[in-house]
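User: quick one, fold this
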Amino acid sequence: MIIAVALIILLIMLIIGMPIPLAFLASAGSICFLGDYDPSFLMVYGYNKINSILLLTIPLFVLAGSIMDNGGIGEKLIGTVEKRVGKVKGSLGIVAVVSCAVFGAVSGSSSATLSCIGSIMTPRLKRNGYPEGLIGALLASSGVLGILIPPSMLMILYAWSSGQSVLACFLATVLPGILLIILISLVNCWYAKKNPNIKVYDKVVENINTNKNFKKKNDSAIPALLMPVIILGSIYCGILTATEAAALSVIYAVPVGAFYYKKIDKITFKTALIQAGETAGVIMAMLFSVMILSRLYVSENLPNMILQFLTSISEKKVIILIMINLFMIILGMIMDDCSATILAAPILLPVIVALGVSPIHFAAILGVNIGMGNVTPPTAPLLYLAGRISKAEVKEMLGPDIALICFAWFPTLILTTYIPAFGLFLPKLFGYL
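Assistant:
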């Protein structure tokens, strides 16, 4: 009864548009009132949970992403990808997809990826004949790749809340992320082939006037491309921890943006600091509130209740995993990726382990589910953000978005869920399992 009331209150708060941290606290408050819990104990518990050095990784990566957004690194990454895409219909869409994946590997954030790459690619895609609805849907699905390509903020949160290895969680989402890049690019090419207004993109004519300029532009992208190599290489070689690598990303991004690309000055650096501070502050407030709520849910035996409910419907593992996937997609539809992850991880992990699923395998399943939920109507947060960036109406994006869900996201989800080796291959290869 207490859990039912708490869940109803949480759902109502989310529907009426209350900020997510306050919605979590309202749900937690109802449990405290009805269940006679000590609020002071819960406040101490929430503080102790967020008092973790691993969580320093989040504001540092957020700051690095904000500096890169303002420092021209995203534009240079796009220029490099453009030079390596052939003259085929839909090639500019592939540039958008791959650029989002590469920038996601640097920033670790889907919203930062979408904001940076989307604002650069939207005018180019429109000039190339892409309709606004297709642009919005394509950018939304591509921006979510920031969730899956390491270093992923989502996987840092999952590893922290579930007590798993950050590096193993990073590796678990790599192959699903690569598969999504391929499938989203193929759906884009199919739309381009159907649409006579989409032209063949000639990168040589449009972007390169002389061989000298080509060489200069190619060289200018090297520091941007080295960034993910340095960060991830230092982590997987055991030189730096994830937190230290996040600090390195800031130390690297500032001089590259200020002295090499010459786009970071006092004003833009101050703007980047303010943006990063606001984002990190919201995330920390959300972590504090959701840790209190998840502790209460566990105390009220919600994971066991979920497992009993699922097994009462069917005892087949395949069916139970379908229902868990559906639940996580709905979470991704109504919450941002960070909120959905830190709420789902402590509640669903005991259920998943009881089914015999590896927690690292679950990291890959959760990442794909939350990403898919973020672009699934009717309440798709990243789809609406992409619509604002591309100036596309929701009805124009629905067709392409559903096609991307059916032919890119859904096959990836099925493969990731029911073939454990797909998500566990790289963690085993690197010795994390």
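User: anything notable?
Assistant: Confidence is low (pLDDT under 50) at residues 208-219.
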